[in-house]
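Collaboration report, partner site 2.

Our partner group contributed sequences for two proteins of shared interest, and the home lab folded both. The records are reproduced in the order in which they were received, starting with the first partner submission.
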Amino acid sequence: MGMHLDFFDLRTAADLFRKVEEDLKALQDAPSDVRLAFNFFVTVEHLPDWLDQRSLVKKNCALRVVSHLANGAKHFVLDDSRHKSVKKAEASRYVEDGYVEPGYVADVLEVHLSADEAKEMGRPVIDVLTLGQKVVQLWKPDVPAA
């Protein structure tokens, strides 16, 4: 089990990235938890600033979607006119392929992308875990060693 970080232990980009990874693991364990999703996306939204890479956000579809979720959700508005990446975010139920127990349904939070972002991402809808994994992999090479 990884080391738990207290708020005051977040001093470097590596510290913040460890929190991002912990938040994603928590979200993987409870993919329908809106609070965990919000916590993850708000934390990820701060990584570009800590890495002095804010300019990358406008160039990267996944980071634009994260920015919209973090800023839109913060104000409980996902159709804020300043943000064009997300049409709506919702919880969706799906049944896992090959799951043996009949009737097993898992909840997962999904993000419905705008037409432009859907075209760039290659899909109209992305679940929060897939989006989370994308952004973690994107930032991982840029984070200096602790």
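Second partner submission, folded after the first:
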Amino acid sequence: MSHLTRVTAIALLLCLSMVGAQAQAPALRNGGPAVSPDARLREVDRDPKLYEQYFRTGKRVAAFCANCHGEGGNSVKTDVPNLAGQNTSYLLNQVRQFSDGRRKNEFMEGLMKALSNDEKVGIAVFYASQEVVHRPARDAALAAKGKAYYDRICFRCHGESGHGSDQYARIAGQQPDYLTQTLRRYRDGTGNRVDALMAANTRGMSDSDIQAVVAYVTAMR
């Protein structure tokens, strides 16, 4: 079986499993006009009972994600991103981009398209509530060099603590190989993701700069 066929088959099996789970799960909405995921997320933020409902939905759906992103969103693979602690609005937007094809990954695109809007919101709520497993820096000197670079440039969008915002990703505690690949792709213009700001801010990074920044960022809490 080819890699493409295998990936497609896995995605189909997961989608079918989700359909079965959706059929058994109680509806979160009580009728009325459709509500956008962003509007629903704002409702969830204001209503503790609704939050609990969406948290449970997200936890259930996250069981399918654990094979790659780990239990609770702490990936066991250094080239697969952690989702734990990610900002809810940012994560929901990434899910939406996979769903509509703006962000490219065959497996993720198929999986996200299979989710209902409620499940997409639930995923964001669940992962945002999880804690990132902290990994101290292995090379203190390299991390210090990375901090100096981060404090000059990266903090402007990702914040002094690396926790980002609704528009920018939390990168504190992120997986090292994933960060390295992402920074190189933005710098070299070789990835599918297009972000003019990231491209501009990584264009002058050397490989040693990237290595240092990754050493620092992965050790941030």
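Feedback sent to the partner group on the second submission included the following. The CA atoms of residues 74 and 82 lie 5 Å apart. The two ends are 42 Å apart (CA to CA).
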